[in-house]
């Protein structure tokens, strides 16, 4: 067996997008990038719950069709966006026609604060525009004749279709006389047909992508979700504005000029009273969040078996490593020990870090570990774990081989997580393991590799 992918699915590795943190405070540079012929835009809706993909079946725009083959994100150049009548009020675009606002300043002595607000923007209808960064277009399967050396990829999240669908159709797509009975699903289909693609749910679409596109999508999903959900100041409840092209939020208290929710404006008035503590303390700003999750392969005291468990909510016959969120003020080791005790009643005496994986549902970081115990007596927490087994190399290795030999195996399984029939129980084995895109699979595969080395060295 050849263990080839130490870079986890959704991670970038040496093909990671360059997030261009150095230029994000410069409004001038952001405007240049947004208007560049090398700018490309991906489109999502409802805070990254769905992304626009190339429609592989143009006769149907249904997003409910199963995803059974490789997917491709739709990328738009500036020219293509305008040709297809999408007129997002892009605060960075020179040709913007609709209402938007960015900060304008009078002279102020509050220099540091003003610096932070310089790239602040606010868009109507919970829309976000986020710079994802610079990437080699050859990695993204762009269907273009002449590829530039780099593309600057942005994500446009169209915001809340449930709440603002009709406004979005008329203001962004110039579709007037919208049918009053049109629901969010109808709005979504209309937008997809305008743009010539199909919206797919994040989970279903992402697992059909190649690895570099999946990485880019993971960045977009995490940031668009965070921007969408972080609309109000956690300190004072006032509206937050986006700054640094989607990487920071700042409280607008004391900064707002005349405007409305649909056409907001932001003006810094010298001498205005800044009443929000978030603007004055060192923890002024809101940043994209990442939630750490430990995922653990527990190794038997004799070293020859791996403990896999079946969560009560797992589909079909799947057994996997146990996992849980890192709690407040916990080290990774603390979290591994606590979860192992809570779920299986096992005392862990050593923890070994193996690898990590971004998991954009919406913004977790999976931290893969092996854990070592002196006891094999397990006590299952039935509220979380349906069953757990100590499994040998001979139990697990056939499943790893099957997934190695059939790279598409994961796709049919991921397409519909609620459908248990897509997780067939392997004949004569009685359990299944996670797909090769999951870090749990990598832990299982790594353990098998080590066991094989151990067995061969014992010959
Ligand atoms: Zn505030």
Automatic annotation (TrEMBL):
Coiled coil: none annotated. GO terms for cellular component: cytosol; peroxisome. The keyword Magnesium applies. Residues 288-415 form the Nudix hydrolase domain. It catalyses: a 5'-end NAD(+)-phospho-ribonucleoside in mRNA + H2O = a 5'-end phospho-adenosine-phospho-ribonucleoside in mRNA + beta-nicotinamide D-ribonucleotide + 2 H(+). InterPro entries: NAD-cap_RNA_hydrolase_NudC, NudC-like_C, NUDIX_hydrolase-like_dom_sf, NUDIX_hydrolase_CS, NUDIX_hydrolase_dom. Its EC number is 3.6.1.22. Keywords: Hydrolase, Magnesium, Metal-binding, NAD. Its cofactor is Zn(2+); Mg(2+). It is an enzyme of class 3 (hydrolase). GO terms for molecular function: metal ion binding; NADH pyrophosphatase activity. PANTHER family: NAD-CAPPED RNA HYDROLASE NUDT12 (PTHR42904:SF6), NUDIX HYDROLASE, NUDC SUBFAMILY (PTHR42904). Belongs to the Nudix hydrolase family. NudC subfamily. This is NAD(+) diphosphatase.
